[in-house]
Amino acid sequence: MNSIAIVGAGLGGLACARVLQLHGLDVTVFEQEASADARTQGGTLDLHGDTGQVALRTAGLHDRFRELARPEGQQMRALDPHSGDVVMDEVPTEGDDFRPEIDRGQLRGLLLDSLSPGTVRWGRPVAEVAPGTLTFADGTTAESDLVVGADGAWSRVRQALTGVRPEYSGVTFVELGLDDADRRHPDLAALTGQGTMMTKVDGQALVAQRNSNGHIRCYAVFYASEDWAAGLDFADTAAVRAHLLERFAGWHPSLLGFLHDLDGGFTHRPLHVLPVPHAWTHTPGLTLLGDAAHLMPPLGVGANLALLDGTELATALATAPSVDEAVRTYEAGMLPRSIETAKACATGLHDLLSDDLRSMAA
User: Fold this and answer.
1) Which InterPro entries has this protein been placed in (predicted)?
2) Under a CB-based contact definition with an 8 Å cutoff, are residues 137 and 31 in contact?
3) Distances in Å between the alpha carbon of 288 and those of 49, 139, 159, 309?
């Protein structure tokens, strides 16, 4: 029986492992983090009916996903940054579930629970990668018929396959959050609605998104040089707040409330992307999926493509005459798709920070 080693226990890697196990194939997932709860898993995701949900159906998890999904989270609102007035409010119709929202952590938990016990080996950081061979930080090795790089933006498997590293996009995100928002921050919760709220002008934006359990995750987004935060201590919440309030001066006080009333601190998330196109010469024993293959701006497609990549690769491995033919089939479909999507996302990033309030690229 062929053995598959997946590096990275993110959504794409776990979806791949799930479908491989459905077909009775031998798979192990190696993850550098110590446990499933080692860190928070980020915000909310919209799972598209033609990509992410297709993958979940392939994985036999769509019904369980529907139990957790929030169709009301498809609401999209745009507010005028100077007046605070609502200029667009698109509320999903009853039965519309093309892009329902789900917390990333909930989706990851769903995938983890679907795997056989022991599939994920936690606390296994990879130091070196070669076709069919992983060398871990402690010097031990693992052999397999295929190494799948599902290890995200700073993928070690990608370094072995293409040597390409992400580049700073010129756009930065500063993340903040509101807890128990409907009770503790009712005015900001009302501005957000049940899904995503955006307001933007002059190359700057504020985005707020509903998560489950009353949490709202927010982002201040703007063009900036890579060293814009030099000298700014993100552990000093007051200093970061003062900087952002100065940067967003002139915006309506109701919107600046997101910067005033946050719970916890600010997190700096400079946006990195892979060059377009990012492709490689087929190499037996190695391949990539998700952000390791096609890191793009966070405009609602990354998780969907990672899930689709993972399930398509697993299906090919289960049905092709050989591992190498399976990988060739997978790459022949995934690479053109990811290149075209990356081109669209590059345009979408510009739209995100354009003055067109009805352009909701996020």
Assistant:
1) FAD-bd (IPR002938), FAD/NAD-bd_sf (IPR036188), TetX_monooxygenase (IPR043683)
2) no
3) 23, 23, 11, 9
Say if residue 122's pLDDT is above 90.
yes
Phi, psi values for residue 209, rounded to 5°: -135, 130
> Cβ distance 80 to 68 under 8 Å?
no
- Per DSSP bridges, beta strands 196-201 and 76-79 are parallel
Which residues is 198 bridged to in the sheet? Answer: 78, 207
Residues 132-167: pLDDT tens digits? 999 999 999 999 999 999 999 999 999 999 999 999
- Known binding residues are 39, 46, 104, 291
The alpha-carbon radius of gyration of the chain (Å, integer) is 21
Q: Which residues are annotated as a binding site for FAD?
A: 46, 104, 291
Contacts of 123 (CB under 8 A, 6+ apart): 31, 32, 33, 34, 35
Question: Residues within the annotated binding site for NADPH?
Answer: 39
Q: Would the pLDDT of 46 be above 60?
A: yes
- pLDDT tens for 7-31 read 999 999 999 999 999 999 999 999 9
